[in-house]
Design brief:
The chain is of the alpha/beta class and about 250 residues long. The protein has eleven helices and eight strands. Helix 1 links the parallel strand 1 and strand 2. It binds phosphoenolpyruvate.
């Protein structure tokens, strides 16, 4: 059965003292039992977050990692390092990584492999840009991103994958896909997985929507049949709005 998930991507926000305050507010909350809550702090605060939330149901995720287990890759962090501090979930392929750090599908396929071979869960992000949507190419772009970055994995590996459809034009812009647009493409994503793998895999994978989700629109977006939650950027930096989004389910 697929899970309901709300994940906060804190990006390069929140130093240690801000992280401490935000985590303390989240720790006080009793979230609905059927919603998996995740937060992805900056690398410098991951160990603190992981230690602080060890006995708490909120999962700590990394925002990225290198595809190799170790090596002369200055400034990088590996799956093995993340696991050593208790972090077992990683966001891969966020549009900001694709756009500003040249992460392409071939590289992302390697990162997915590293996550899977280290028994981590990968939140695999993908989504079209505005020009693609305007040209009516969003279905093709999304299918290609999935085929090239993810569809090499085996059937058994799907239980370690969470998908995050994030139209680039809706990230941090205040522009949100309408609930109908979200449902339409999430349904398409499920159909594409079903055609390439099986209906059971397609039905069981959680597909999150990301792009300017806020307390005011979360309920309608999460209410769509094929939307299993959200990857939240800006609104996850404020405890009150993130908690309201989790409770919108
Ligand atoms: C994101 O960064 O994944 C995101 C969805 O950001 P925002 O919610 O700010 O649009």
């Amino acid at each position: 059965m697929r899970k309901k998930i709300v994940a906060g991507n804190w990006k390069m926000y929140n130093d240690l003292s801000e992280t401490t305050i935000l985590l303390a507010a989240l720790k006080e909350q009793v979230f609905p039992e059927d919603v998996n809550v995740m937060v992805a702090p900056a690398f410098t605060n991951l160990q603190y977050a992981s230690d602080t939330l060890r006995e708490h149901p909120v999962t700590v995720a990394a925002q990225n990692m290198h595809q190799s287990e170790k090596g002369a890759f200055t400034g990088e962090v590996s799956a093995v390092m993340l696991k050593s501090i208790g972090v077992e979930t990683v966001i891969l392929g966020h549009s900001e990584r694709r756009a500003y750090f040249n992460e392409n599908s071939a590289l992302l396929a390697e990162k997915v492999n590293s996550a899977l071979s280290n028994n981590m869960t990968a939140i695999f992000c993908f989504g079209e840009e505005l020009v693609d949507r305007k040209a009516g190419k969003h279905f093709d772009v999304v299918r290609e991103q999935l085929e090239d970055g993810l569809f090499h994995i085996s059937e058994k590996d799907w239980k370690h994958i969470i998908l995050a459809y994030e139209p680039v034009w809706a990230i941090g812009t205040g522009e949100t896909a309408s609930p109908e647009q979200a449902q339409e493409i999430h349904q398409f994503i499920r159909k594409t997985i079903s055609e390439n793998y099986s209906e059971a895999i397609a039905e069981n994978v959680s597909i999150l929507y990301g792009g300017s989700v806020k307390p005011a629109n979360a309920e309608e977006i999460f209410g769509q049949k094929d939307v299993d939650g959200g990857l939240i950027g800006g609104a996850s930096l404020d405890a009150e709005s993130f908690i309201a989004i989790v409770n919108a389910f």
